[in-house]
Design brief:
Keywords: Decarboxylase, Lyase, Magnesium, Membrane, Metal-binding, Thiamine pyrophosphate, Transmembrane, Transmembrane helix. Strand 6, helix 6 and strand 7 form a beta-alpha-beta unit. The chain folds into 3 domains: 178 residues, Thiamin diphosphate (ThDP)-binding fold, Pyr/PP domains (Rossmann fold, 3-Layer(aba) Sandwich); 157 residues, Rossmann fold, CATH 3.40.50.1220; 200 residues, Thiamin diphosphate (ThDP)-binding fold, Pyr/PP domains (Rossmann fold, 3-Layer(aba) Sandwich). The protein has 22 helices and 21 strands. The strands form 4 sheets. A 7-stranded mixed β-sheet has the order 11-10-9-12-13-14-15, with helices on both faces. Strands 3-2-4-5-7-6 form a 6-stranded parallel β-sheet, with helices on both faces. Strands 17-16-18-19-21-20 form a 6-stranded parallel β-sheet, with helices on both faces. It is α/β, with parallel strands linked by helices.
Length: 575
């Protein structure tokens, strides 16, 4: 077979295309410019320039969550770039996301020598970044001449197998080396190993035995099975088992909310009335991908104690209430087999109880609507209602940390709509650049950002990149004049932030972007919302302008923080 020479960037671009990647995020620096030139030679990969490395990392996080390939690529420069993006990659690690970090570094001969190079600490040791990334990736390497192509394939395999970030340093001199390749490089082998069918069948038997002994089970849906189970499969399993199902905050959208057995959000002591009581009254919790942490339990659920009634189904294992665990199973086969089996359904009273709860809230909402004046101030409940009436099946809600969680989690999603949250790492400001990555990955829908004013101040400059790439996301800012959830945890002047005119900020960014563009300016509107009337008008306009980027600044009186937020804050107070 004839061969020709290619550079390292050509090899990487070929592999990324093969993996289904269509976009990569970058902040240019002099150590990665030649690499970027090589990546640009592939017309099927789009380069997305971000305002800073942290935002580029968040964008890659959003892309890895929502793209078909579930893999994202980000290109940065040595130290000043790699350390800037580190926080975002740590967050991606906490979520089990496949993010490939390419870092241009000084030439090979400078490593281990005392000569000072810019962006370094001025030491002979120039491996600080490489060592740091070993803590937030499944593999971190620096490429060299001898084994570059094979090293690339090996580390990409590790990324896919572990579903975790990887970090690749590429010296500037290596970028110019030629590597022999064929016109059609052998494809990367499939990363997955076949689980044991015998163990999967045994898991079904163990599940059945535990299920048959239960009298009043419930199902709890988390986020940990996104990569192996579709929402449709979870819906069918819930139907087959017959009992009520609830979702954790990060499990929202993993079960269709219009499913007749679907309850609401189960969030420990800040659950809606009746939900916590229903779950706690159950004698068996069938947990589907529940990745528990302290923000799920709020110190009110003792996980060690509750495991005695927990049948946990995870990505490749099940754990029984008696502590036995069966690993190396195929969860997809396991669930599909359960669905078609003759396992008896449990139509427990909790299903009826939950339907009564839903009916209560429906009537309560209708009663509130009758008493609302269009001139009334906007509150969090109003934003929830507006979003519920707006979100479509192709949309994705990206909810930032803090009060935004409490608004976004109560939005009733239509079938097929998606919901994303970074609960474990909880880095504020994540949602806006992550939504940009999501919007690029899912261009047929709209990314809807729900973000607080404090979080927006962390990453709001990426609004300019959204405009530059003509994205039609909707950014809902809950402007309550500071870090209100943190204030509920511990009151103090440090929770106050400087006031911004967010609509003026958005308009200034739009004007700046439009002045440098030769094409027709991208449609965008920004509006400040203080009343019911303005809220309805803003969402009507966003609906009427589906191609426009919209920023809706919802001014919410901080003195009217809901009781549930105060209760949430109280659970996190350090004794």
């Amino acid at each position: 077979m004839p061969s020709h020479k290619g550079k390292v960037g050509d090899l990487l671009a070929h592999r990324f295309e093969e993996l289904g990647v269509k976009d990569y995020f970058t902040v240019p620096g002099d150590y990665n410019l030649d690499l970027l030139d090589q990546l640009l030679r592939n017309p099927r990969l789009r380069m997305v320039n971000c305002c800073n490395e942290l935002n580029a990392g968040y964008a890659a996080d959003g892309y890895a969550r929502t793209s078909d390939t579930k893999i994202a690529v980000v290109v940065i420069t040595y130290m000043v770039g790699s350390l800037s993006i580190l926080n975002a990659i740590a967050g991606a690690y906490s979520e089990g996301l496949k993010v490939i970090v390419l870092c241009g570094v000084p030439e090979s001969r400078s490593h281990g020598h005392a000569g000072r190079v810019h962006h370094s600490l001025g030491l002979a040791d120039k491996e600080q970044s490489l060592r740091i990334y070993r803590n937030v990736t499944c593999a971190s390497i620096r490429l060299d001449n001898d084994s570059c192509p094979q090293d690339i394939d090996n580390i990409l395999q590790k990324c896919r197998a572990a579903s975790l970030p990887i970090y690749i340093e590429i010296p500037v001199d290596l970028v110019h080396k030629d590597f022999v390749k064929t016109p059609c490089i052998a494809p990367l082998p499939c990363a997955e190993t076949a689980p044991s069918l015998d163990r999967t069948m045994k898991a079904i038997d163990l599940f059945r035995d535990t299920w048959m002994a239960a009298q009043s089970p419930v199902i709890l849906v988390g986020s940990g099975l996104r990569s192996v189970l579709s929402v449709e499969a979870i819906d069918r399993l819930v139907s087959a088992l017959g009992c009520a199902a609830f979702y954790l905050l990060d499990g929202k959208s993993r079960i269709t909310e219009t499913h007749p057995q679907c309850g609401k959000l189960f969030w420990s002591i800040v659950s809606d009335p009746g939900v916590e009581e229903t779950v706690r009254a159950a004698d068996l919790w069938v947990t589907l991908g529940c990745r528990w942490n302290d923000l799920h339990t709020l110190e009110a659920i003792d996980l060690e104690k509750e495991r005695s009634r927990m049948l946990a189904v995870d990505e490749s294992s099940i754990q029984l209430p008696d502590g036995r665990e069966l690993t190396d199973i195929c969860t997809k086969t396991f669930v599909e087999s359960l669905i078609v089996s003759d396992i008896p359904a449990r139509y427990a009273s909790d299903t009826t109880l939950h339907r009564n709860i839903c009916e209560h809230h429906r009537r309560e909402g209708m009663a509130k609507q009758h008493n609302v004046s269009l001139d009334d101030e906007v509150c969090l409940d109003d934003i929830v209602k507006a979003l519920t009436g707006f979100v479509s099946p192709t949309d994705t809600i990206m909810a930032d940390a803090g009060e935004s969680w409490f608004a976004a989690s109560r939005v009733r999603l239509p079938p097929q709509a998606d919901f994303q949250v970074q609960l474990l790492y909880s880095s504020i400001g994540w949602s806006l650049p992550a939504a940009m990555g999501c919007q690029l990955a899912r261009p047929d829908g709209r990314a809807i950002v729900v973000i607080g004013d404090g979080s927006f101040q962390m990453t709001g400059q990426e609004l300019s990149t959204m405009i530059r790439y003509r994205l039609n996301a909707i950014v809902v800012i809950i402007n309550n004049w500071g870090y209100q959830v943190e204030d509920a945890i511990h009151h103090g002047p440090y929770n106050q932030i400087g006031g911004w005119d967010y609509t003026a900020f958005a308009e200034a960014v739009w004007k700046g972007s439009s002045s440098k563009s030769d094409s027709e300016p991208h449609a965008m509107f920004a509006t400040k919302i203080t009343s019911q009337r303005e809220l309805h008008e803003a969402f009507s306009r966003a609906c009427a302008q589906p191609q426009a980027l919209a920023l809706l600044e919802c001014c919410v009186d901080p003195a009217k923080a809901s009781a549930v937020i105060q209760r949430f804050g109280a659970t996190l107070v350090r004794k």
